[in-house]
Amino acid sequence: MAVSIKLGADSVEASAPRELFTLPAFDNGLDAPYDVAPDGQRFLVRAIPQQQTAQPLTVIVNWPALLKKGAAAQ
């Protein structure tokens, strides 16, 4: 949230709060999904990457035997 500040000779007047940005929902109960950069100029936001389609995984079992077979064929 942010507010604009107007300083008078003897007063300080704040505007109505406004939302700067929306954060993703994190429900780990431990820490906030953001932090302020050391220079105070940026917010660092933890984000979850969008789901991608899983790539197929090929498992080759007994691969040493396949190597021996290939060597014998030459």
Please write out the topology:
Blueprint: E1 5-7, E2 12-14, E3 34-36, E4 43-45, H1 63-73
Antiparallel strand pairs: 1-2, 3-4
Task: Write up what this structure looks like.
With 74 residues, this protein is an alpha+beta fold. 15% of the residues lie in helices and 16% in strands. The protein has one helix and four strands; from the N terminus they run ββββα. The strands form two sheets. Strands 1-2 form a two-stranded antiparallel ribbon. It has a two-stranded antiparallel sheet with strand order 3-4. Strand 3 and strand 4 form a beta hairpin. The radius of gyration is 29 Å and the shape is rod-shaped.
Short description:
The chain is of the alpha+beta class. It contains one helix and four strands.
Number of strands: 4
- Beta-strand portion reads 15-25%
Poorly predicted regions are none
* Radius of gyration, taken over Cα atoms and rounded to an integer in Å: 29 Å
